[in-house]
Specification:
Elements: H1 9-15, H2 21-27, H3 57-70, H4 74-90, H5 100-113, H6 119-135, H7 142-150, H8 157-169, H9 180-192, H10 194-208, H11 212-228, H12 233-237, H13 240-245, H14 252-261, H15 269-280, H16 283-291, H17 295-311, H18 313-318, H19 328-337, H20 342-346, H21 349-362, H22 365-385, H23 415-418, H24 425-431, H25 458-477, H26 479-491, H27 497-510, H28 520-530, H29 538-550, H30 552-557, H31 583-591, H32 597-610, H33 612-615, H34 619-627, H35 636-650, H36 655-678, H37 690-702, H38 716-732, H39 737-754, H40 759-775, H41 780-792, H42 799-817, H43 822-825, H44 827-840
């Protein structure tokens, strides 16, 4: 089959009577293609999505055609094929209509001539042909044409299948400029010829025999037509191809596509029945793949089983155990859940989420009881999958085989085991420390082993997904019953540390959903956890600390777990006896261990949030923690969380104590700001004040004492004392939007904290805002202005000042927005401006409309 010249010489001739420079390059054998950046051929995943623009518009068509014709090497052919595909997708309008047929014939010639050169090139040319067929309205019955032309040639079948695979995939491509009517016409045409494609695929299967690569191509093509939704379900139910589908191990993608296509089961019942029965026969094939340790096939089968359950979910819920609601589908997923690789069970998570959602909406106790056993088995499997690698075995207590919450020692239970623990003075000090002690104990030195669960790697993310799934499904099992069963496995047995850690992890996931009323198990669990010996694996300590934090409501109902408050002694030769239920001491030990510090801080934060009143007597200890915050190995989020918890407890103190305690709580952060302000910018040290600003903001945000009318707000004095430091920080960093935003955020929460008690700051604050805003239009000033209007807009003596502030802020704002593309470039400014104006407008007797800055002449009329 010879090369066709498809009429592109006509427009080219109008541009130049001779050979173009690009064609001269092609005629020279493309010796310089490598110089164009195309070295050896290419992994398709690493190739650019678009070819470089080397030639003018119409030249690219003919140059690409010439490069494909001479096919000197793979690099030049790939470049030309990809260029041709991109031109058809994006610039098809450049070609005259009478050249379309010649282009089609030329592309078909190229794909046949280059079919053995490289699969990547065949795919690019197949895409080009498919995109041409979709845009070329005059090419009627393209599927029939292709099948008739190439189906009898065995060597042409691979590229024919490639074209028929990408053709339905490209129908909904956003790269093609075709309208809705043309798209509808195409889908109807493909539906008409779909039986022709199925017949071709049956013939191809018979010719392929056991050739796996060819079978993959065949069923990938069938899956593509299933995805488009044009295959007749009754025809497919009786097709020989469907029975072959379950005999070929390479057809999992196609089975998933078929199941997805019949999501409306009732209208596709014949095909649905065939697929349902066919997938159930794959159980033995799954077990064979497991025996051969073929993880790829195992994952594919699990995808098929999951898609089966997704498709028949409504039937499973409405008619469990009957017809298409046969619960053997769930058995298949539970078999997959038993695979040792957690990636297998993770595939089914979306189905279990949806099942839980459907059952929750059903709210039928009888239906729920049917699924209870299945969910219990799933939860046990998930607990096994959450086990950490035993390679993290404890180095300090190498003989320990396990841990029990019912004992005060690690697995061996003997004195010799505990003798491995090196009790240092620091450790003793922490063990005996009360949160009311005047000074913090020194931090524990890091133990030799690591082993703390990672939350950011793949396995850590899997565990987080398990935690979410358990929370969604626990109502089917009963959180009280499940929690008690999990505890029994630890109390009555002596499991290895990795089993203990996984069970504690699942218990932490459901702890908040367990009924707190008359539940002695919760109290027993909490007591057992805080009495775990230090010799247990670090991961067990880490997860037990998380569990304590999740059981904060139990602590609130049983405040004796917080221990008795003791007045700090100025001097003592010996430490006092330990508290009977040292929850806070237990968490403090974790806080002093760099590996456990952030988890312990989060747990303390949770307890402070829930047990505010009970924690008030321990505020002095919290204050000491806050003062030494930077001495702990905390993440920024954990440090802020600790301050938040401390502020929540602070708000529960007597009013007469709040002012002094707040001042002490803020003192460390204020001192840090002063130190940064005194630094010379050229000394090489960081002068970024964002950390202390963020910490002050969280303190102000969560210090909300109850103040009766007529009482002076206890935080008012402290905020007035801190204002000069904040003001100086704002001036020093006025050009830095990030730091200015932090300053404004801190001031916003300070104003919200004391409300109208911050009136003394109103004038200096507004003056500084306006002055800085004239030079640097940070939108956060507009937001802060709206906060001031919200707080003081109803005060008669403040209205005029607020209107003056509004006018002063509007002038530079309109100048900014009137710049080219000003509205598009500053969306935050637009939002904050309208928020400010909206809060000004509703206030009674507030003459906003009379403000010059808001009149059309003032620039407001410029806004859309």
């Amino acid at each position: 089959m010879g090369h066709h010249s498809y009429g592109l010489a006509l427009p080219m001739a109008r541009l130049s009577s001779g050979l173009s420079p690009g064609l001269a390059l092609a005629g020279q054998g493309c010796a310089s293609i490598g110089e164009l950046g195309l070295s050896a051929v290419p992994d398709p995943l690493a190739l650019p999505t678009e070819p470089p623009v080397l030639f003018p518009q119409v030249h690219a068509w003919e140059i690409s055609d010439q490069l494909l014709q001479i096919h000197q090497d793979v690099e030049s052919c790939y470049f030309a094929a990809q260029t041709m595909k991109m031109k058809i997708q994006t610039s098809f309008y450049e070609l005259p209509t009478d050249s379309h047929a010649s282009l089609r014939d030329s592309l078909l010639s190229h794909i046949q001539n280059l079919k053995d050169l490289s699969p990547v090139i065949v795919t690019q040319l197949a895409l080009a042909i498919a995109d041409l067929a979709l845009q070329m309205a005059s090419w009627k019955g393209c599927v029939q044409t292709l099948v008739e032309k190439y189906s009898n040639d065995v060597t042409s079948l691979p590229f024919l299948l490639e074209i028929l695979t990408v053709l339905p995939e490209e129908v909904h491509s956003r790269s093609l400029r075709i309208g809705a009517n043309r798209r509808t016409e195409i889908i109807e045409d493909l539906a008409y010829y779909s039986s022709t494609v199925v017949s071709l695929l049956v013939t191809c299967v018979e010719k392929a025999g056991n050739e796996e690569k060819m079978l993959i191509k065949i069923f990938r093509c069938l899956g593509s037509w299933f995805n488009l939704g044009v295959l007749d379900s009754t025809f497919m139910a009786n097709s020989k191809l469907l029975s072959l589908l379950f005999e070929v191990l390479a057809a999992s993608d196609c089975v998933c596509s078929a199941l997805y296509a019949i999501e409306n089961v009732e209208t596709n019942l014949p095909l649905a029945l065939q697929l349902f029965q066919g997938v159930l026969t794959l159980e033995s094939a799954y077990h064979m793949a497991v025996a051969r340790e073929d993880l790829d096939k195992v994952l594919n089968y699990c995808r098929v089983f999951t898609e089966l359950c997704e498709t028949f979910l409504d039937k499973i819920v409405c008619t469990p155990g009957q017809g298409l609601g046969d619960l053997r589908t769930l058995e298949l997923l539970l078999i997959c859940a038993g695979h040792p690789q957690y990636e297998v069970v993770e595939i089914s998570f979306n189905f279990w989420y949806r099942l839980g959602e459907h059952l929750y909406k059903t709210d039928d106790a009888v239906i729920h009881s049917i699924f209870k056993a299945y969910i219990q088995r799933l939860l046990h499997a998930l607990a096994r999958h959450c086990q950490l690698d035993s390679d993290h075995e404890l180095a300090v207590c190498a003989q320990a085989g396990g841990v029990s919450l019912g004992t005060a020692c690690c697995g061996t239970g003997g004195q010799e085991c505990c003798s491995w623990i090196r009790i240092t003075d620091a450790a003793l000090a922490v063990a005996e420390w009360s949160l009311d002690s005047p000074e913090l104990p020194p931090c524990l030195p890091p133990l030799p082993q690591e082993g703390v669960p990672e939350e950011t790697d793949d396995f850590g993310e899997f565990r987080m997904r398990v935690s979410d799934l358990v929370k969604d499904l626990i109502f089917l099992v009963g959180s009280v019953e499940c929690f008690a069963q999990l505890y029994a496995t630890l109390k009555d047995g002596n499991p290895p540390w990795e089993v203990t850690e996984a069970v504690l992890f699942i218990m932490a996931s459901i702890a908040k959903s367990v009924d707190q009323e008359n539940n002695p198990t919760l109290v027993e669990v909490l007591e057992g956890v805080v009495r775990l010996p230090e010799s247990v694996h670090t991961a067990v300590r880490y997860t037990s600390i998380e569990l304590v934090g999740e059981m904060s409501e139990v602590v609130d109902r049983n405040p004796q777990f917080l221990g008795e408050s003791r007045a700090p002694a100025p001097s003592r030769p010996l430490p006092p006896p330990p508290d009977p239920y040292p929850v806070l001491g237990y968490l403090m030990k974790g806080l002093c261990d760099r590996r456990l510090a952030s988890a312990a801080a989060k747990a303390i934060h949770n307890i402070c949030s829930v047990c505010r009143d009970h924690m008030a007597q321990h505020f002095s200890g919290l204050l000491e923690i806050a003062r030494a915050l930077d001495s702990f190995a905390l993440s920024p989020e954990a440090a802020v969380g600790l301050l938040k918890g401390t502020a929540l407890v602070l708000a529960r103190l007597p009013l007469e104590k709040i002012s002094e305690c707040l001042s002490e709580l803020c003192a460390v952060q204020v001192l840090a700001l002063k130190k940064l302000l005194s630094q010379e910018p050229s000394n090489g040290l960081s002068s970024d004040p964002t950390v202390p600003l963020d910490r002050l903001a969280v303190i102000f945000r969560h210090t909300n004492p109850i103040v009766e009318n007529g009482q002076v707000h206890p935080c008012q004095k402290v905020i007035q004392e801190i204002w000069p430091v904040l003001s100086e920080t704002l001036n020093k960093h006025s050009a830095d939007n990030r730091i200015v935003e932090r300053c404004c955020r801190c001031l916003r929460f300070a104003v919200r904290c004391v409300g109208k008690g911050s009136a003394a700051l109103l004038q200096p604050l507004v003056t500084q805002m306006v002055n800085v805003y004239r030079e640097h239009q940070h939108s956060c000033f507009l937001y802060l202005g709206s906060i001031l209007v919200d707080e003081y807009g109803m005060e008669e003596g403040c209205r005029q000042g607020l209107l003056d502030m509004l006018q002063a802020l509007c002038i530079p704002t309109f100048q900014l927005l009137e710049q080219p593309n000003g509205l598009q470039n500053h969306p935050d400014t637009v939002d904050d401006l309208f928020r400010l104006a909206a809060r000004c407008h509703p206030a009674p007797a507030t003459p906003c409309r009379g403000t010059p800055a808001l009149s059309p002449r003032g620039g407001a009329g410029e806004l859309p």
